[in-house]
Amino acid sequence: AQKITQTQPGMFVQEKEAVTLDCTYDTSDQSYGLFWYKQPSSGEMIFLIYQGSYDEQNATEGRYSLNFQKARKSANLVISASQLGDSAMYFCAMRRGSTLGRLYFGRGTQLTVWP
Amino acid sequence: NAGVTQTPKFQVLKTGQSMTLQCAQDMNHEYMSWYRQDPGMGLRLIHYSVGAGITDQGEVPNGYNVSRSTTEDFPLRLLSAAPSQTSVYFCASSPPHRQVPNTEAFFGQGTRLTVV
Questions:
Q1: Does A44 touch chain B (CB under 8 A)?
Q2: Which of A78, A86, A92, B31 would staple A101 via disulfide (CB 3.0–4.6 Å)?
Q3: pLDDT tens per residue, range A67-77
Q4: Closest alpha carbon within chain A to B29
Q5: Would you place residue A113 in the very low, low, confident or very high pLDDT band (cuts 50, 70, 90)?
């Protein structure tokens, strides 16, 4: 069963605009962590941001923020002031408290930033 | 800092051949994992390890073996390569999240494998 769902295969945004990438998750664990990774065309996996299930504040890292809605089981990534270099594949992932070290990934969203 | 090192970066195999993908990390991480990435599928877990001598299967383990004799190394063996194993393979490591809850997994650069 898919534990992480990313419903947007592709997204387009104009440079300097904000964009939201959707992610919903499914777990019965009380303790879990949610991650976003960026994969540019060069292929490496770049960690962007983390949200713990017990964190009361939404995580922020520079231009990235995570809109965490626990009751809805959603963890959307918001990128503010998009840049051309943000064009990449973005993956949402979950680490469940009961499964040591394992990450469950969504299928990804391809973001294209245009001038 | 080396981080997670995967070798080789590219490999072409003939059906039926065997090979080992190497993964080494220098961060003293207990957790190590292997994922494969296929178009439209995200990353799927093949095998993982929570420490030397301890391994377990992930979502797609068939056709692959692993062992963990040291903390640093976690090789992935393809026993008899098949075209369905054409993929990009990633190795990742992380410290135990109970000790460092908010730590991410660190990924290697990936190995692009083609089986013909």
A1: yes
A2: B31
A3: 999 999 999 99
A4: A101
A5: very high
